[in-house]
Amino acid sequence: MSFLSFLSQPVSLSHYLIVGAVLFVCGIVCMATKRNAIGVLMGVELVLNGAAVNFVAFSSPFLRADSQLSLGLDGHLITLFIIVLAAAEAAVALAIALCYYNTHATIDVDEGDELKG
Amino acid sequence: MERVDPELVEFDVRTDEMLINMGPQHPSTHGVLRLVLRTDGEVVTDVVPHIGYLHRCAEKIGEKISPRQWIPYTDRMDYLAGMNMNLGWAMTVEKLMDLEIPDRARHVRVMVCELNRIASHLVAAGTYGLDLGSFTPFLYCFREREKILDLFEEVCGARLTYSFITMGGVTGDLPPGWLDRCERFLREFEEVIPELHAVLTSNEIFVRRTAGVGVLTPETAIAYGCSGPVLRGSGVKWDLRRDGEPRVTRMYEDYDFEIIAQHEGSYPQDRDDYPPVPPEAVLGDSWHRFYVRMIECVQSIRLIRQAMAKYQGCDGPIGEPIKLTQKLPKGEAYLETEAPKGQMGFMVVSDGTAIPWRVRARSSCFCNLSVTSEICRGCLLADIPAIVGSLDIVLGEIDR
Amino acid sequence: MNATEIIDRLKQRFGDRILRSDTDCLDPWLEIAADGLHEICRFLRDDPDMRFDYLHCVSGVDYVEPDPKKAKKTDWQPHLELLYHLSSMQHRHRIVLRVVLPRWRDGVHGRLPEVSSVADLWPTANWHEREVYDLCGVAFAGHPDLRRILCPEDWVGHPLRKDYETPQEYHGIRVK
Amino acid sequence: MINWHTLFFLLFAVPTCLFAVAVVASANVVRMAMCLIASLAAVAGLYFLAGADFVGAMQLMIYVGGTLVLLVFGVMLTVQGPSVSLKISSANWLMAGLAGGALLIVLLSAVVGIEAWTSKAVAETAPAVEAGHTVAPLGMGLLGIRVDQLSQQDPTLRRGMSGYLLPFEIVSVHLLVVLIGAAHLARAKRRRTASTPATTAPLNPEP
Amino acid sequence: MADYLVQFGLPVWLAYGGVALMQCLILLTIMMFAAATFTWMERKVSGRIQDRLGPTRVGGRFGWLQSPADGIKLLCKEDLMPAQADKILFRLAPYISFCASFCVFLALPFSNGWVAQQLNVAAFFILAIAGLEVFGVITAGYASASKWSLYGAMREAAQVVSYEVPFGICVLIPVMVAGTLDLVAIGNMQQGWGINWMIFHSPFMFVTFFIYLTCAVASTNRAPFDLAEAESELVAGFLTEYSGFRWSVFFMAEYGSMTAVSGLAAILFLGGWHGPIPIADLLGLTYSNHAILGWFGELLGACNFLFKAFLGVTFMMWLRWTLPRLRIDQVMTTCLKYCIPLAAAMFVGVMLWTYALPGGILPRKTPMAAVAEAPAWTTVETPGGDRP
Nearest CA to CA, how far is B235 from chain E (Å)? Predict the structure, then answer.
């Protein structure tokens, strides 16, 4: 179905879900391809944000036909928890990345192949 | 903050050590000094000063012209204290020729040299405030210094390079009315000193930035040949005006003044409105060096007042300078005098003709600066200007 | 302790290495042999009643008469002198050490005279000896970092020598 | 008809997607960080648009202002010379592109397929934001009083309305543990041997 | 305002768009005007402190034309860019920090109704946006590709990020007492005589005001905490490579955030647009009498607010020209060892104080009463209990 007509319709839940999907996919691809440890970390951030967008979209009263079906407050609270936990996760991940950088003198993930058979 | 041994320097992330050039044209180095710092993050592990950018081979020229012609060269060595430099060279040649100067000239010399000491200490205090980031005291100090330069302009026509003191006395007598203008300056200056203490010495942030920074132990100070406020800041009670050679101490013979150095934990307090020594200040740190300079200004005021009284008391000849072609007796003479920055030594070797065979100037800042690599090891990057500023160096004198 | 007592003490202890001395001139001095410099300085610094802890300065004086006419009238041979001005803060006495060196090592033009460095006894000597090396051309053996201090690193010649002519230009900059 | 809502939605959605793709595409890690910051700031705009203004402000402050600053610090500390832009072989690109594309198609078909989510079901006039709309219910929810579900008649659902007090406490303890762990992991380690051979050699700096 | 225009038959989207644009323009002019006057004022104030005149040459006796003259000079100065700089980031950096410090003005109320966008999370929004300004500095530091600017940028980033914590707590305390994040409500809560100001709510609040000022000075990189462009060590920090217009954008961002932070202080602690003596009420300039009179009351309030912001900025300038600079580790220790514990202690103190004396020293609208007007559901007992 034509994408343009989709654009002209009033903004609904699916619009937000598309943005969430795009973020999610970019995050996965980024994690898969990046050789820089911090690049992988950025991929993780994108994935988390993709999920958070979906939660906020579902909990918004304007985007659905009858606003009773929306998640209401739960969506907001879960997004808050996602943001807080992402901060904690980023802190630990960076600490590990710095330790990796100290021991291997480079941030390139491919160098970390000590456990290879 | 105790000094960190470079071998055990902490590293959190493998930042390869940076080699940073501070200078030669850097806002906080006084003149053209180049400091090569090896830093690891914020901690400075090694400092190597590079000098020689202002070397004008004054000593080579000294071997071609007569001593009186060389006096303008001594002015340009420590351009902030021209009078004291002239005094040093003049007295060295007088020592060689065993020349005595009349009392009236002696008192003029004391007055003028102590005024120049105040001017030099004012510049030191002002630029030190600038190094630590507060702009205002710099302007207070230079406003007072302008008044001193006006007084000098009346005496010898120049504001920075005076060539006023020569062998055999001074080139001219004080103009009429100069003494009460000088008295008015001293009175005004005495009100400004508490202001400077308030803005700098007892300022909480200033104390935090200087107390315990760049600690110089008395033994290291003596071993490195430091002198002046740098030496006295480390608690060594040594001032050539009192402990120097007879010829120098004769100049300050019947003058009553204190030598400013922390003795048994306290400074000589002849006035009660000095700010107390803060608890964090360790003997020999940048704060003490700054404090010694500030109190020396007060002693200089006392000296000038006594010199003015004595000058009015005795009326004799002012002493006429030696002739340009005066033959110097054969032999050597080395004499050190108490310049504002430290002991400024001059040596003259003559072979009997009017032109000296060899002229040598021993600079106080040359030795004071050689201490930097010792006391700056392990400090933070922001401490470098604090330490170098407290040594109060002038590159003209170091490079000659 | 005045100068004569100091010189007598040194003569007893080092005998032949103390050469000439003169106590009634303005700055009493004593001349010592070049090879005994380090040992004598260590004694002067560490001996309890000498205690020379303050080295004022190290200066080099070059004695040579470039133009032949005046050269005949000089009563000394061309040589290089090092002057060490020492003083003690404790005992408040002072002495000048004089070391006479040949202008060039074993007569070959360009080879600097050798003398042992006292930088380990008085750290202030570190910079002073570098200046004498830079300007007067005396090599100090055992100096931790003997480089030129006032002239540029790659400067040729030692300016304070009497027979030194200024080079025409330095890196394209006219000097004369 | 293009109304305000779609215009603002596009204003925020397009940069989000563009910068997200830019993060994947660029090799230079610093540029990647900048694009990520821009993308997540645009996501914060989306949250404001969807009526979750407290969450939007939270995202801006905690996520963009805190986490990504940490990330940029990490980038600045480790970007030394060659590791700034690590090239990726084109084979990886191809495979990643294929996998990503497939996943995207699956997701989009789900998103567009389900009738309830598409726009035909959206009520014509969106309910206006009622006056006195404060974040108090959100705060109360965190403390366990589900203020917005009071009218819930269904008893089974009602019991589920205990609010988020327990996870709130767990998260605070969790953050403390993470804080200490990260600080310990990246602490300054004291090195016994001379840090670099250069310190032993005399320091003659090249001009 | 917007619906006022709609009555004239303008299409809805044009009306709202026009109003939004107008508000942005007004705020932009206020910010430009504030930056211009403050640069001139800084030189006058520093002159007075240093016993000299300050600019007098350009324009009349007081040299008031100085800042436009500076502006023109900066505009025609050449915009240098170092060769190996990261071109895009180098150009982008000043605009990031300018936008961040401009967006803060959107949620800052100048008077009762006079606010660009009345958010009910205004205080929190301002905190969030103030956090973004550090990105402009980091990008500038990295993009200038020189050792010195990287040092400056890293120092500033570390300082601003660590000072956001006590800054946040100090903003939280008056918000906790007021019960709402909406700045307009907080402002309205402090009307009446000067004693109603939040700062006199309790001794703890009084101390919080001064901690707030320290953190505000630190987070806008001014006076004793201006490590980033510590000229004595790092030449000019991250600003070394900038010149001409880009430098003036950074400069405006700094003055903008200074004004914004002192404006926030005025609202949270010093009674926003209410003067110590409620002249507007005494003279009857309230909406109840007549719309025009009400408008003048608001105008008076706006002048009041601007005067307090002006006082805050003068205080920062006064600090700058008297105190020397702190070292980077001293800045960090003041933040971690002094500001945060003190702010936390004040938080507990104010909380206990409101519990002990609900109305504060003098009986006035208690926060709980203020909430009472909110919809009925807030006064509720825990769920599960069966409601009558």
Answer: 26
Residue E340: pLDDT band with limits 50, 70, 90 = very high
- Using a CB-CB cut-off of 8 Å, the residues of chain E touching D133 are 120
* pLDDT tens figures, B174-215: 998 999 999 999 999 999 998 888 888 888 889 988 998 889
Tokens of A117: 């058979």
Is the N-terminal amide bond of B276 cis, ω within 30° of 0? no
B313 near B339, Cβ under 8 Å? no
Q: How many CB atoms lie within 10 A of CB E34?
A: 23
The domain of C79 spans 3-174
Q: Which residue of D has its CA nearest to A93?
A: D182
- Note whether E121 contacts D: Cβ–Cβ < 8 A: yes
Least CA distance to D206: which residue of chain C? C153
Radius of gyration of chain B (CA): 21
Q: Contact at 8 Å (CB) between B311 and B174?
A: yes
Across the interface, whether the CB atoms of A42 and D100 are under 8 A apart is answered no
Among the partner-chain residues B15, B46, B48, the one whose CB lies closest to the CB of D199 is B46
What are E241's two structure tokens?
A: 């490579």
CA D106 and chain centroid, separation:
23
CATH number for B17-399: choose from 3.40.1190.20, 2.60.40.10, 3.40.50.12230, 1.10.645.10: 1.10.645.10
Nearest of E313, E325, E133 to residue E225 by alpha carbon: E325
Q: What is the pTM of this model?
A: 0.83
Q: Nearest-CA distance from A111 to chain B in Å? A: 17
Q: Looking at the partner chain, which of C26, C61, C124 has a beta carbon nearest the beta carbon of B225?
A: C124
Q: pLDDT digits over D93-140, tens only? A: 898 899 999 999 999 888 888 777 776 555 555 555 555 566 777 777
Per-residue pLDDT, averaged over B319-339, amounts to 88
Mean pLDDT is lowest, of B216-225, C122-131, D78-87, E315-324, for D78-87
* CA atoms within 13 A of residue C50's CA, in its CB half-sphere: 20
DSSP 3-state of C16: helix
Note the pLDDT of residue E388. Answer: 39
Domain boundaries defined on chain D:
1-87, 88-132, 134-188
Helix (H, G, I), strand (E, B) or coil at D87: coil
Q: Which of residues 251-280 of E touch D (CB under 8 A)?
A: none
Q: What is the CATH number of domain A12-62+70-109?
A: 1.10.287.3510
- CA dihedral D32→D34→D35→D41, nearest 10 degrees, is 140
The domain tally of chain C equals 1
Cα distance between residue C39 and residue E73, in whole Å: 68
Q: Is B214 left (phi over 0), alpha (psi -120 to 50) or beta?
A: left
CB contact under 8 A, B13 and A105: no
Report the gap between the CA of B8 and the closest CA in chain D (Å): 6
Closest C-chain CA to D207: C153
pLDDT value of residue E160: 87
Q: Where are the domains of chain A?
A: 12-62+70-109
pLDDT of residue B111: 93
Amino acid letter for position B63: E
CA distance B338 to chain C (A): 13
Q: How far is C41 from chain B (nearest CA, A)?
A: 14
Instruction: Return the CATH fold of D1-87.
Output: Four Helix Bundle (Hemerythrin (Met), subunit A) (1.20.120)
Check if D197 contacts C (Cβ < 8 Å).
Answer: no
Give the number of A-B residue pairs with CB atoms closer than 8 Å.
Answer: 7
Closest residue to D20, CB basis, from A26, A33, A41:
A26
Count of alpha carbons within 13 Å of B195, Cβ hemisphere only? 18
Q: How far apart are CA D126 and CA E55, in angstroms?
A: 58
Contacts of A101 in chain B (CB under 8 A): 13-14
Look up the CATH number of the domain holding residue C10: 3.30.460.80
